[in-house]
């Protein structure tokens, strides 16, 4: 099967979508398995919260710093090469990690792992819209997000069991195997993106700031992600100290947001693409912030579970909508740079939230912090909605009338 050069709409390649979704589930599970394992190793080694924070920073910083490079690579280099070479290197790094115990060396190797992720994320983001017709993109995005969420749910529990039964080495070896699975999936994919340049050999021009509506959307998402990252730190003290939750209840609450995301992926993947706009996405962001604001007044920990499920449902919708909107407003030849810019903004904002949360928890009441963070996200999303609604309507770049020329099937 291949894209035609005429005006007919190409058929969606669901086999490729399922292959990407399956490899994403394995890869995300492996990543979270390694992250949880390494955090446990550092904590049990007596290195404290500073070392764990350093580990999280090492896993996030390369995705933000390398975006200008990785986006250009994604748009210039054959997707199959990137998706085969980068995970192969990550697999080798995981093998070394399995036999490393010094905290500084662990952080350095985790940073190298994140460098590989910085290259593969924009490639996968740009590749998915090439696999399906525009009308099928919400469903494809929902499948991919659901697979990732399942990996996120399984990994922490699996890490706890494996570390407790066999130590840290086995989970890290399994993570190395998960990267090899991604290499296999890359070689099996029939859809590929090949680099497209202008007649002078330059990349097709594209800048995020040239699309004001998309820029506002990314800014709101970044602010919201900063708040979510801060909440992930604050909720430990809010649930355990303020609301008196047991460790079991804390685990249930922590899992409820991800469970809501799974539900949201399925619900919002059914929305027709014509209804997926930046305004609609910002409304869903508002929906994800409202439960956080309400949670600040919760009298007990069990009240948080339905609120976190509701917030997670909206979070799942956000993830589905992002794929459709970025693909629709960005030329096919520039989608690697678009997704790299989005990833950089999200990761940078997440780091800011994590860094700010620590000192704030030491100075302010956790209930107050939950209220402030939720209100900040709510006000930011509503402000962005006002700005976007004043923008003139713009037609998406993605078109069903002519297929992209920079993807091929083999």
UniProtKB/TrEMBL annotation:
Supply the alphabetized keyword list. Cell membrane, Membrane, Transmembrane, Transmembrane helix
Q: Which CDD domains match?
A: MFS_MefA_like
Residue spans crossing the bilayer: 21-43, 49-69, 81-99, 105-128, 170-189, 214-239, 245-264, 276-297, 303-327, 339-361, 367-388
SUPFAM superfamilies listed in its UniProt record: MFS general substrate transporter (SSF103473)
The keyword Hydrolase appears for this protein: no
> Where would I find the Major facilitator superfamily (MFS) profile domain in this sequence?
1-392
Is Cell membrane tagged as a keyword? yes
Where does the record place it? Cell membrane
**Membrane topology label:** Multi-pass membrane protein
Major subcellular location class: membrane
- Organism domain of life: Bacteria
UniProt-listed Pfam families:
MFS_1 (PF07690)
| PANTHER family assigned | INTEGRAL MEMBRANE EFFLUX PROTEIN-RELATED (PTHR23513), STAPHYLOFERRIN A TRANSPORTER (PTHR23513:SF11)
Name of the featured protein = MFS transporter
Which species is listed as the source? Paractinoplanes hotanensis
């Amino acid at each position: 099967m291949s894209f035609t050069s005429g005006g007919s709409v190409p058929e969606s390649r669901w086999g490729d979508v399922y292959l990407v979704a399956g490899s994403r589930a394995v890869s995300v599970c492996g990543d979270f398995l390694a992250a949880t394992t390494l955090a446990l190793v550092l904590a049990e080694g007596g290195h404290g919260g500073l070392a764990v924070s350093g580990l999280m920073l090492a896993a996030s910083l390369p995705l933000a710093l390398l975006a200008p490079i990785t986006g250009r690579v994604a748009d210039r280099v054959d997707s199959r090469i990137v998706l085969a070479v980068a995970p192969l290197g990550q697999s080798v790094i995981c093998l070394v990690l399995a036999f490393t115990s010094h905290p500084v060396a662990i952080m350095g190797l985790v940073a190298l792992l994140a460098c590989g992720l910085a290259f593969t994320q924009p490639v996968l983001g740009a590749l998915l819209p090439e696999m399906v017709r525009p009308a099928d993109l919400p469903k494809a995005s929902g499948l991919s997000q659901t697979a990732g969420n399942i990996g996120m749910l399984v990994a922490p529990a699996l890490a706890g069991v494996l570390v407790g039964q066999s130590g840290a080495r086995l989970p890290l070896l399994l993570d190395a195997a998960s990267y090899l699975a991604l290499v296999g999936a890359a070689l099996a994919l029939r859809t590929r993106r090949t680099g497209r340049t202008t007649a002078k050999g330059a990349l097709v021009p594209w800048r995020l700031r040239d699309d004001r509506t998309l820029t506002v959307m990314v800014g709101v998402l970044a602010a919201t992600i900063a708040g979510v990252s801060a909440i992930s730190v604050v909720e430990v003290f809010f649930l355990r100290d303020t609301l008196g939750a047991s460790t079991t209840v804390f685990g249930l609450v922590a899992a409820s947001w991800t469970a809501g995301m799974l539900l949201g992926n399925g619900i919002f993947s059914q929305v027709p693409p014509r209804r997926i706009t930046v305004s609609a996405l910002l409304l869903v962001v508002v929906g994800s912030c409202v439960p956080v604001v309400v949670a600040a007044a919760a009298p007990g920990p069990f009240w948080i579970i339905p609120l976190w499920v509701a917030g997670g449902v909206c979070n799942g919708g956000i993830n589905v909508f992002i794929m459709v909107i970025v693909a629709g407003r960005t030329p096919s030849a520039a989608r690697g740079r678009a997704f790299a810019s989005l990833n950089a903004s999200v990761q940078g904002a997440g780091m800011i939230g994590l860094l700010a949360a620590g000192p704030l928890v030491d100075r302010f009441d956790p209930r107050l912090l939950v209220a402030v963070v939720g209100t900040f996200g709510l006000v930011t999303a509503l402000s962005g909605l006002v700005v976007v609604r004043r923008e003139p309507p713009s037609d998406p770049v993605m078109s069903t009338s002519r297929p992209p020329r920079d993807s091929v099937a083999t």
